[in-house]
Amino acid sequence: GVIRSSLPRIPLVPKYSAIDSELIRVNVIKSFMRIQRMLKRALKLNTYSIASQGAVLITGVLFAVILSRLVSVTDYGLLTSFISFVVFITILSDMGLRTTATKYVGDAFFSKKSDLWKYITQLTTLRFILVISMGIAVFLLAEPLSRTILHDAQYAFVFQFTGIVSIIYSAMHFFEGLVSAANRYEYTFAGSAITNVGRLVLPIIAVMFISPTAEWAIAGVAGGYLLGAVSYSVFFRRVYGFKFEWSGGLGEEMKRYAIYAALIGWSVAFFSYFDTVLLNAFLSPDRVALYKAAQQVLIGVVSLAPISYFVIFTFFVELEANKKRKEQVEAYAQALKYGLVFFIPVSVMMFVLSSEIIGFLFLPTYAASARALQAFAALPAFYFLFNVNMNALFARGEIRPAAGLYILAAILSVALNVFLIPIFGFVGSAITYSAAFIAPTIISIPLLMQRLSLGINLRALVKPFLASAVATASVLFVKSQITGNELLLIILFPAVCAAVYLALLDDDDRRVLKALVELFRGKERAA
């Protein structure tokens, strides 16, 4: 058969013997088959993970749209701040243990090491000691925290709920990591659906049938997280069973990894979620609500990623455990290509249609959120690159450079927020959030290129920038001719991008599409 250009190129040397030519042909076919198997395996895992992200996207957007209409702007600000506080406490108390557990439990699971249950037992115990201690401290200090951060002791209930729910959320978060470590993404999809549907439905029921206040909305969200914690604990038992093994230490290598993972965890807490603490300290809850509305759109957008960040991590862990470095390089190159093909147009769309997106999703009282959304617009492509690059480094055990980049992001986040929020308000925090991701991402790109012996393929950037330019011209033209049709413009932009991509498919694109078709056909036959 014909060997397509997407396969590894063999230099043509005229003096090959017939035996040499046959060996080359066999090696190329083996390489093609290896790439196809890796691609199908990655796509299968990615399909389940993308389905999980789809549950996050749909329920997250519905949560923002519906709850912002059912409660006041101030109560919506308190509700979304509570969610950020819970995640902040969870990551702060985690000390990198989820990342450490995913790395070493996954490695032990796939390489069938006898240390599997020792890792699970000791890391799980330590994780819960930490979060329970911190949760109790937050609950007991609820009133002074409320006076300091929210400027009013009457909001103490926000921190009382935060102390309790952070323990529940941590259980869900940790068991999800262990299930994902085994690449059982059918369970993470189910758990994500249960958690996010519960987090959406229960607060709506609470505010509609009991009281449209922040207290009852928060209680509903807590119920959703409880459903998720129970679900993931059940899935954990199905994947691993149950065993208790405490004997023996964790080893110096794991301890070093855990120290760097803890530094990363604290950095993530500060550069991703501490902005809400600072916003509340500088601004009123109703201004925080405007910021959180734009941020919810951003979270929805990055949840649309065609390549799951966490699949990169667990898939790389599996390949690392089996010493398959070539497959790692191929998987990374494909993730980079198709992630940027998706996110570059998304970034441009967020900037060009910020007012239309906010106007379509939220009430007119949230119109000012469009300015924050424009400040977020540069972020999606960099957010994708940052997460893929960091997860690739984690999986390969190269955690020290990753820790340095996370610490840089945390320092930038805190420093810029303190400087910009007093000047630009909530838009200043949006600028900071973007900058805190973009700076370390730029540094990480040559680092990963060197580690994986890859070059930057500038040609791969031509299509997304071309599609973005054509789509921008199209929506601006339609916008000048038709007014007041936000949904039309929001649909038109990705439709034009898709048309440009279809016109420019290459052999590599066709290979991926073929693997996807075969994957779904296989599922249909299985059904």
Gist?
About 85% of the residues lie in helices and about 0% in strands.
Q: How would you characterize the overall build of this protein?
A:
- The protein has helices at residues 18-70, 73-94, 97-111, 116-140, 142-149, 156-181, 185-209, 214-240, 252-282, 285-302, 309-321, 325-352, 354-361, 369-376, 379-395, 399-424, 426-451, 459-481, 486-503, 507-526.
- The chain is an all-alpha fold.
- The longest helix is centred in the N-terminal third of the chain and has 53 residues, at 18-70.
- The two termini are 33 Å apart.
- The model is unreliable at 1-35 and 523-527 (pLDDT under 50).
What proportion strand? under 5%
Fraction of residues in H or I helices: over 70%
Spans of at least 5 consecutive residues with low confidence: 1-35, 523-527
Give the C-alpha Rg: 24 Å
Number-wise, the strands total: 0
Category from helices, strands and their pairing: mainly alpha
Query: What general outline do the C-alpha atoms trace?
Result: globular
Largest sheet: none
Provide a count of the helices: 20
Instruction: Give me the strand/helix succession.
Output: HHHHHHHHHHHHHHHHHHHH
Query: Distance N terminus to C terminus?
Result: 33 Å
Name the average pLDDT: 81
Relevant terms:
disordered N terminus; mainly alpha; 0% strand; 83% helix; disordered C terminus; 527 residues
List the helices and strands and how they pair.
Elements: H1 18-70, H2 73-94, H3 97-111, H4 116-140, H5 142-149, H6 156-181, H7 185-209, H8 214-240, H9 252-282, H10 285-302, H11 309-321, H12 325-352, H13 354-361, H14 369-376, H15 379-395, H16 399-424, H17 426-451, H18 459-481, H19 486-503, H20 507-526
